[in-house]
């Protein structure tokens, strides 16, 4: 089992190494993050000042700002793997993958995960530096770091599997971008990217609890600022369940798409 995973680990490592050469994209993403954080710092500073409250939705001002650094770093680091899958299906390259000794979904997950980890680390580093200058430094409890690393990795895996699954819709449609637009907006609104879900009205909060997006964005960011190990364990269990569920859904759609290719002679 471990030996069969070597090829996926190697693909992830090679992808991460290759992305290190794209310095211009790293700089662009970092500059975009600086603008976003500048807006958020001013917006939430005014919000807390006008409300007169020290705690809003379980977060003080410092926690809220660092929470947003983390959520933005997670989302901005996302590669466009759904477009790569769409291109493979449209050009017929996916047919060649059928004869190769690897699982196509796992291979795309590995490649995109390696790239995303480099993006995330670079983006978070810039965000940490900017927020340290604009607010003040934040030092999470060192005991939470191993758990935080695992939860971030699982969050990214769940998100990437979801994106790859959207890409598989290219077996039936010409352009999967509208589906990804809906997916990304749901993640932005109900995943807690812009505001924590504890700020939502009760019905929206209940809805977000039934969707996978909070495991991809809100929960890891909350763990970053709260440093609760018991929370980390339950979070990881939920993330593993979501990853397995999305993987099974993705493989089912992929197999149906491959059968459609076979029937049509493609």
Intertermini distance = 32 Å
Radius of gyration: 19 Å
Net shape:
globular
Chain-averaged pLDDT: 88
Count of discrete alpha- or pi-helical segments spanning 4 or more residues: 12
Strand order of the largest sheet: 1-2
Low-confidence stretches: none
Strand content: under 5%
Overall structural class, as computed from helix and strand content, comes to: mainly alpha
- Count of individual beta strands: 2
SSE succession: HHEEHHHHHHHHHH
Total separate domains: 1
Transmembrane segments: 26-44, 117-139, 145-173, 185-204, 232-254
Protein name: ABC-2 type transporter domain-containing protein
Keywords: Membrane, Transmembrane, Transmembrane helix
Organism: Fervidicola ferrireducens
Description:
The chain has helices at 6-19, 23-51, 61-76, 81-91, 93-97, 104-134, 145-168, 177-190, 202-209, 213-216, 218-226, 229-264; strands at residues 55-56, 59-60. Helices cover 76% and strands 2% of the residues. The chain contains twelve helices and two strands. The chain is mainly alpha-helical. It has one domain (6-264). It starts with 5 loop residues before the first helix and ends with a helix. It comes from Fervidicola ferrireducens.
Task: Give the secondary structure arrangement, pairings included.
Elements: H1 6-19, H2 23-51, E1 55-56, E2 59-60, H3 61-76, H4 81-91, H5 93-97, H6 104-134, H7 145-168, H8 177-190, H9 202-209, H10 213-216, H11 218-226, H12 229-264
Antiparallel strand pairs: 1-2
Helix pairs in contact: 1-6, 2-3, 2-6, 3-6, 3-11, 4-7, 6-7, 7-11, 7-12
């Amino acid at each position: 089992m471990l030996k069969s995973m070597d090829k996926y680990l190697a693909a992830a490592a090679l992808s991460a190494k290759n992305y290190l050469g794209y310095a211009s994209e790293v700089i662009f993403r970092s500059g975009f993050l600086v603008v976003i954080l500048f807006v958020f710092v001013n917006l939430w500073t005014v919000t807390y000042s006008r409300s007169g409250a020290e705690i809003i939705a379980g977060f003080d001002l410092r926690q809220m700002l660092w929470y947003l650094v983390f959520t933005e770093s997670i989302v901005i680091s996302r590669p466009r793997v759904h477009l790569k899958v769409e291109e493979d299906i449209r050009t017929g390259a996916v047919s060649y993958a059928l004869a190769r000794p690897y699982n196509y979904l796992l291979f795309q997950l590995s490649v995109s995960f390696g790239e995303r980890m480099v993006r995330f680390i670079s983006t978070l580093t810039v965000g940490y530096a900017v927020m340290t200058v604009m607010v003040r430094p934040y030092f999470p409890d060192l005991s939470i770091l191993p758990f935080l690393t695992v939860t971030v990795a699982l969050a990214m895996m769940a998100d990437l599997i979801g994106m790859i699954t959207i890409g598989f819709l290219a077996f039936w449609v010409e352009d999967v971008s509208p589906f990804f637009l809906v997916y990304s907006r749901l993640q932005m609104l109900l995943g807690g990217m812009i505001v924590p879900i504890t700020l939502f009205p009760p019905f929206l909060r209940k809805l977000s609890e039934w969707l996978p997006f909070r495991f991809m964005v809100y929960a890891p960011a909350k763990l970053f600022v709260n440093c609760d190990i018991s929370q980390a364990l339950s979070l990881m269990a939920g993330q593993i369940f979501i990853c397995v569920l999305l993987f099974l859904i993705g493989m089912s759609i992929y197999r149906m798409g491959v059968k459609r290719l076979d029937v049509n002679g493609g």
